[in-house]
Amino acid sequence: MKHIICIVGNPNCGKTTLFNALTGSHQDVGNWPGVTVEKKVGHYVHNSVDYELVDLPGIYSLTTVSQTGEDERVARDYILSQQAEAVINIVDASNLERNLYLTAQLIEMRVPVMLVVNMLDVAKKRKIEIDIEALGNMLGCPVVGIVASREQGVFALKEMIAAFLQNPSLPKLSLRYAPAIEAAHKQIEEQVKGVGSEHPHWLAIELLEGANGARESLDADTRARVMPIIERTEKEFSGNLDIAVADARYKLVAQVSAAVEHKAGDLPATLTDKIDKIVLNRIAGFPIFLCIIYCMFLFTQNLGSAFIDFFDILVGGVMVTGFGELLEAIGV
């Protein structure tokens, strides 16, 4: 029996490194159907069981808007297709709060999720400690800490995946919106559930956010019933309904991060920080700026004058005189 799982995360969180650590050289590379987005599928065996791992594009959000590319749509559609039995969400331990926004959306999707907290070594250097157990308890899903670049914790991850797939479950944490949004969401969910939507909870959220293609996916009758609810709710938030939905996620993420992330102390100031403190000073900054501009002016003047004779000889002697002699030589 072969299990299929997918991995998703922000860019630069170590997703590809983890994918390579799990699958090694057993990888197939192609494109997702209809788009030029790269598709990577790998395989590995653990305890005589075969696992297929699908590497989804690196994204910050699952909400598709007109400004985003195909990556968000590809990742969202694959997760919702339920081809994978579970989703591995990898996050950067040194930027936990920013990475957990995507986790909040996966919780909203109501799909089986496992969280992998990567780059614990980088977080340690920055004097950041993550309480892995507390994070798992708050999210209500399995969580493991790893250092993918050194393959630390990869075996524990494989064990966690094997145990979780025996009985996949949804995260126990739920997201709470403003009361007006909660009421509108419930009404819209009932409407789209009645026309056979496979993911009414998530579709209702996308409709409220104005996600690209969400409203167009409804038939005319359903759209006619849903749009008045959206427009009424949009009016309550002065046209900023999408911001209000995102704000609910940010609040949840901030609460979770504050509870599980602990800083052992202040980081020592780097050379860049020390320079910034001087050149960005509100009093000394402007005089320093003028001094730098003046130095650049002197530099260009002095450097330019050194090449005046060179270019004079090059253009006058070679390009003019030389070209004239060449024409005389050929009898022109």
Quick description:
The protein is of the alpha/beta class and 332 residues long. The chain is built from 13 helices and nine strands.
| Helicity range | 40-55%
Shape, principal axes of CA atoms: extended
* Class derived from helix and strand content: alpha/beta
How does CATH name the architecture of the largest domain? 3-Layer(aba) Sandwich
Strand content: 15-25%
- CATH domain class name of the largest domain: Alpha Beta
Count of the domains: 3
Major β-sheet strand ordering:
2-3-4-1-5-6-8
Strand segment count = 9
And the CATH topology of the largest domain? Rossmann fold
Mean pLDDT, to the nearest integer, reads 88
Main pleated-sheet profile: 7 strands, mixed
Under CATH, the homologous superfamily of the largest domain reads: P-loop containing nucleotide triphosphate hydrolases
Number of helices: 13
Report how far the terminal alpha carbons are from each other: 86 Å
Low-confidence stretches: none
Please trace the helix and strand order, writing H or E for each element: EHEEEHEHEHEHEHHHHHEHHH
What is the radius of gyration?
29 Å
